[in-house]
Design a protein that fits this description.
The chain is 21% helix and 20% strand. It has 553 residues and is of the alpha/beta class. Helix 8 links the parallel strand 6 and strand 7. The chain is globular.
Length: 553
């Protein structure tokens, strides 16, 4: 008999609740530019606004075109819906009754508790029922990791179900991670977990213990994304696991049981690292990128833990962040300690996007970083606490005359308009000739027209070096340091596209013009707009032809 588990009356994320029932956020919201050179990224609420053509506000022809699609296409569509919505398609019409059972199964434990009224035991029973009535194959299976501890026999039975044959995505996780408040130790997943190694493309292991004996025989020929969240694993097993994933592109690593990791991979494109905690277990302190010819992004997802990062060979590395003030970065013979350049022997020309979290805003530090990364185009500063005067006209006059500031986007968080912050921001407004956007993240108390106009004057926007530069104010926050990130938040994943998108704004009002011969707005047209206006780099990681990759759905 399974051990009794705590109640799992989980709450859905507050972000979803804030939209209210029946409201969906669009993929993107173009900022409304004011007549002056500043704009706001906050959506204008207009409840009486008419919907665009084709969005349901005009008379339709009454023909059900979707039901006429082939079964294979309908099955693909249904497999991308939430578990509850997919099962409910059986009630639409007789044409749809068999589609869900014939479609690849997408079973997400979180989707089953939308009403927040089911006990944990009832939810587990519902999972068992779905697996019993669906013939398979499986596309995605997501359950909370606490079941590994409280219901190991049930989890083993679930994983052995034929409904999960040829599974592509396995996810031992839940959000919000209520099991953070539970005291159960990481438990080894059952052996049946690894029967999918030949077909898995995405895998997330959370709050479990990967034993050396389990890992040594594993091989994941198709795995593209791997996340280890609060997983206990030895250094040797971790290196073995990564080496057995020849197609791995995205790696999220926030676990414990090891102090150092060396990464050599011909396929990795994005790496996110953090520190997992469990009693007196070893914690990650050093990351060495030995040889990663395809690596484009290296993200540090946790602070304030000290970490030492060395990059020996990563010729395509273009994005770094978000590194705290006390970390140590080494690029060949160039050493950055505490965001200060200790030894600048060679520059790093390939890095174009940098996110840092200094103890306080310091222009001298940022200028040193620009010398180290001379091709830097985007700078994100998470901490904007004052502490320096940041006077620059005499102190940095030689740098202004001799160096070309290539920054195009600068984002400053916690901006309050005090003198040190104004001096810092005005340096770039008045000297960065390629600047396109200065985004200031302000407190809600400063989000008003009076503050905007005041800062426009204090930053001397009328004298800006780049005539096309815009000043934008927003209340949105980029939260890469939150508890739950998963591989979704690595660019190329489902949910964390902030480093791919030009704006961190989550909702956009857009005007999509109809193409010749089109009578209404289509998703294809919207995707074309997103590709042209929001995705500032590597659109092929998001858009595939006139559609998107399945894992973005």
């Amino acid at each position: 008999m399974d051990a009794a588990a705590p109640s799992a009356k989980k709450r859905r994320s507050s972000a979803a609740e804030s939209h209210g029932p029946g409201k969906l956020s669009a993929p993107a919201l173009a900022t409304t530019e004011a007549p002056s050179t500043y704009s706001t990224a906050e959506p204008e609420e207009s409840p009486n606004q008419e919907p665009p053509p084709g969005a349901g506000g005009e008379e339709q022809d009454g023909v059900d075109h979707i039901s006429g699609l082939p079964d294979a296409v309908l099955g693909d569509i249904v497999s991308l819906l939430s578990t509850k919505e997919a099962a409910r398609t059986q009630t639409l019409a007789s044409r749809w009754r068999h589609v869900w059972r014939a479609a690849p199964l997408n079973l997400d434990h979180d989707d089953l508790n939308l009403d927040d009224d089911l006990e944990d035991k009832a939810l587990a029973g519902l999972v068992s029922h779905i697996l019993a009535v669906h013939p398979g194959p499986g596309r995605r299976f997501c359950i909370p990791p606490h079941h590994l501890h409280y219901r190991p026999a049930a989890v083993d039975a679930w994983l052995q179900s034929s409904a999960l044959d040829n599974l592509q995505e396995l996810d031992f996780w839940e959000y919000p991670p209520y099991w953070y408040h539970l005291t159960f130790p990481p438990s080894p997943p059952p052996a049946s977990t690894f029967r999918f190694t030949a077909t898995l493309r995405v895998a997330t292991f959370g709050k479990c213990h990967l034993l050396d004996s389990s890992v040594e025989a594993l091989h994941f020929p198709q795995l593209r994304q791997l996340a280890l969240e609060d997983v206990e694993i030895s250094e040797g097993s971790l290196h073995t696991m990564i080496s057995r994933c020849p197609a791995l592109e995205c790696l999220l690593l926030r676990s414990f049981g090891f102090c150092r990791i060396q990464i050599s991979s011909n396929s990795l494109r994005s790496i996110g690292v953090g520190v997992g905690f469990w009693h007196n277990k070893p914690q990650l302190r050093e990351v060495v990128i030995v040889d990663a010819p395809c690596l484009e992004r290296l993200l540090y997802l946790q602070e304030p833990v000290d970490i030492h990062v060395s990059v020996i060979s990563a010729p395509k590395l273009a994005t770094l962040g978000c590194f705290p003030h006390h970390c140590k970065l080494v690029f060949g013979t160039t050493v950055i300690q505490g965001l200060r350049i200790d030894n600048l022997v060679t520059v790093v020309p390939n890095v174009k996007i940098l996110a840092v979290s200094p103890s306080h805003i310091n222009l001298d530090t940022v200028i040193d970083l620009m010398k180290c990364f001379p091709c830097l185009e985007k700078l994100y500063i998470q901490s904007c606490i004052s502490g320096e005067s940041n006077l620059w006209r005499r102190k940095h006059s030689h740098f202004i005359r001799s160096c070309n500031i290539r920054l195009k986007t600068i984002v400053l968080q916690s901006y309050r308009g005090i003198r040190s912050q104004v001096n810092f921001a005005s340096f770039f407004v008045l000297n960065a000739r390629e600047l396109e956007l200065m985004r200031l993240v302000v407190d809600h108390r400063d989000y008003n027209e009076r503050f905007f106009v005041e800062q426009h004057g204090m930053l001397q926007m009328e004298k800006r070096a780049a005539r096309g530069a815009r000043l934008e104010f927003t209340k949105d926050m980029c939260r890469h340091g939150r508890i739950h990130v998963k591989h979704d938040d690595l660019p190329g994943g489902r949910g964390g596209l902030e480093l791919l998108l030009e704006s961190a704004t989550k909702t956009h009002k857009v005007e999509v013009h109809l193409n010749d011969g089109e009578a209404k707005v289509t998703v294809r047209g919207l995707l074309s707009w997103v590709k042209a206006n929001l995705i500032n780099e590597r659109p092929e990681m998001v858009v595939k032809g006139d559609s998107v990759y399945a894992f973005l759905s």
